[in-house]
Write a structure and sequence with these properties.
Subcellular location: Endoplasmic reticulum
Distance between the termini: 32 Å
Structural class: mainly alpha
InterPro entries: 6hp_glycosidase-like_sf, EDEM1/2/3, Glyco_hydro_47, Seven-hairpin_glycosidases
Protein name: alpha-1,2-Mannosidase
Keywords: Calcium, Endoplasmic reticulum, Glycoprotein, Glycosidase, Hydrolase, Metal-binding, Signal
Number of helices: 17
Pfam family, one: Glyco_hydro_47
Largest sheet: 3 strands, antiparallel
Helix content: 40-55%
Strand content: 5-15%
Amino acid sequence: MNMLPSILQTWVVMFLVISPTLFAASVSRVDSYSSARKRHLREKVRKMFYHAYENYLTHAFPHDELKPLTKSFTDSLSELGNLKLEHLPQDYSGSALSLIESLSSLVILGNNTEFERGVLWLSDNLTFDVDARVNLFECNIRVLGGLVSAHILATDSANRLVQGSYNNQLLTLAEDLGRRFLPAFNTPTGLPYAWINLKYGVIESETTETSTSGCGSLILEMGALSRLTGDPIYESVALRALRKLWSMRSSLNLVGTTLDVTTGQWIGYSSGIGAGVDSFYEYLFKAHILFGKEDFWRMFQSAYLAVQKYFRHGPWYHEADMRTGKATYWQLTSLQAFWPGLQVLVGDIAAANSSHREFFYVWQKFGVLPERYLLDHQIIHPTEKYYPLRPEFAESTFYLYQATKDPWYIEVGESIVNSLNSYTKVEGGFASIRDVNTMQLEDHQHSFFLAETCKYLYLLFDDSFLVDRNIIFTTEGHPLPVLSSWHEKLPEAYIPANWTFPKSESQRRRRESAMTLQVCPATTLSLNHGDQQIESACHIPDVRGDHRCLSDEDCGVDSTNCRKRSCSTASYCGLWLVT
């Protein structure tokens, strides 16, 4: 699917008719130029990664994260998600967080020697027997996910990334960490506490408030740990929490943002696809890919359609009350930028492209993506004006280029690279931006800059790591393999050509949908589906079957072009020309 601008599409068609030979030569020159350009950008990203990584090793290792302005360090694992900086440990001196986060990136950049060095250092030195209170979600996606992914890479017999003595030490560390997580799940509901002390478990008078993403985004890492160790407990507790969370959804199939883990009651009813909820949606679908459970697919499908119905407004996604579906906050948050990438996996390419271009509009407006942008006023949020080197926009750009091969996404990636080098690169690494209005810097290089931002930019320009690999990336950018042995029933779209799995016709037909068929918009289909009607993945039906309406709220999204329908003066939903 080549999403060229309409004028260029017309020119291409005319040129093909006039001179196909000349056109072929022209394409060859464009491909050559494009390849050279991508190689140049790949090398720029490589230099970015090593500038950040080597400064971390020089000034911060083995502490958690680099402070690039002062060329010092922060032991931040206990601070992640801890906005009030409560219960900070006294004797904690870091867990080499940025090294753990860098391991899979080193492999993708082709530096097997440094990967091996990092693996062996962690094998000999890392311990979790520390008196430190950490955020379960952050520690899961960064540390557990990083260790599990690196272990899989280290034991990949086809690539032999570790030549020295490696005897599954990273998996042993991951299992030790997983065991330390388990007391968090000892609640009446099975929903885990947001905070756990790695040495002593849940501390006395611990808060019972957590977020939807905090207790609904554990299944990939803990499920993978169970599959690797043969101990089902990790996957079991994560799955129990996820199912409990889904059972708490409203009649509209929406979930809130914050909840109480002991009572199972919602605290925050406003919801969206951004902070506090984002990875919940991501993990429902990716868990289906990784483990093949049909209930993951059913949950995701219902949740996705509810998002499209109640949050989407044209290319934007606002927040809404989970009980009524009524809009609450008209705002864009930088974490929402992951959504187009998820939509690519779903197959909803048109909708992904539409929202991605709006994010790019905001990026161009400020030079980077502010943490929160008020859509109704078209201004930055007065207090959340920062950009902490987040990866989500680069991630979606990578996915959309993979799906479309549209060179426009290479241009977007180049813009991201140039912005990062212009505004955030300092002598001691890459610094977060405190205020996107003034580009004032903050003394912090987050570990996800190494784990995700540089990784997705590198893969945008050089995807050779993906060749002959069938993987998914966790929400922290750590690759996990899609293996037949991990599946109850392998999703059809992810079966490699050399695998054969008998499927009945009824099973095949039951799984066909707009999302699995990648149909959006619902143009003419040359597919034989019998009596089954295939709708566009972006289609939202009108409230009434006869298409009558009282206001635009009663109208959905058109299935043929993914445009929002509106209520006419005659009280019918449709697409009306505005003159």
